[in-house]
Amino acid sequence: xxxKAKLFVLLTFAxxxxxxxxxxxxxxxxxxTTSLSVxxxxxxxxxxxxxxxRKGIYKEKKIFSEAVLIKPNRxxxxxxxIMPVLALATMAVSLLMPGISF
Length: 102
What we know:
This protein is mainly α.
């Protein structure tokens, strides 16, 4: 693993665990609004780590490489179709079980 990757993983874990530690030490309960206020910043920790590593530490001009910019193809369409179909199929199967209603 390269030094950039190690630094990225280290920063991501540090930011993620910091958010969780602050939440736990605050004494708040894991309810709807509180959980949302914790999970939203939590999901952006990889992005923040990538920006810090590439722009802040290694002084690169681009944040993301061209490898991320893939031309759309038929698999993008398949991914967009398969996930809603699986969600609907899961709901249909669960509605067949006794005691479950929509």
